[in-house]
Amino acid sequence: MRISARQPALAWLVAGEWESQKEFLGAHSLPLTSLVSRAIDGLSDASVRADVITKLLKYFHTDSVCLHDNHPRVLAELQERHYAPIAAWARSTYGIDIKTTTDMFVLRQTPEAADRLRAVVEGFSDLKLAALERAVMTAKSFLIALALVEQHVSVEDAACAAQVEATAQTQLWGELENAHDLDNAAMRQILGASACAALNA
């Protein structure tokens, strides 16, 4: 794996991942290395890039950020707190209309908005696209991931937005012992790696 001399911070971060390995290598403990490898081995191909961007934009059309429930109240409040600012940022930053609804089955964004975001993402470097791809797959949201790699939200804010439904369920019904802690840590690790990669892309 070769990292450009223009990206010393990235090189140090990747080296740190490898230095922290113990007796057995764990893919889960090399998230930044995985992103760099994805950028070099996969996204340097123009056709692969195009396919990935098309796949990621499908998440935009059914983005959880655009779904706002009326009940239960705790869920509606969490959605307003975490989703609304991200949608407002995307509208103002990219000059697009983002539709929100209470019915996920009728949620569909305009072709103009999708085309504008496609143009934005097509301008990303291979590494930044890899970071976006991993963040979208982790958060299950195009807009949360985009806000993260564009440095509009922190890793913590992105994770909280991605876990709105789980947080609401926990507040309503209680937490499963250990399970949520593991999910929380894993999500923040992956989103953190994505943020670092985008910052150093």
Summarize the structure.
The chain is built from ten helices and no strands. With 201 residues, it is mainly alpha-helical. The radius of gyration is 18 Å and the shape is globular.
Keywords:
201 residues; mainly alpha; 10 helices; 0% strand; globular
Question: What can you tell me about this protein's structure?
Answer:
Helix 2 crosses helix 10 and helix 3 (46-61) runs antiparallel to helix 5 (111-122). This protein has helices spanning 8-19, 31-41, 46-61, 73-94, 111-122, 126-139, 142-149, 155-162, 164-173, 179-199. The model has no long low-confidence stretch (mean pLDDT 88). It contains ten helices and no strands. The chain is globular. By secondary structure, it is mainly alpha-helical.
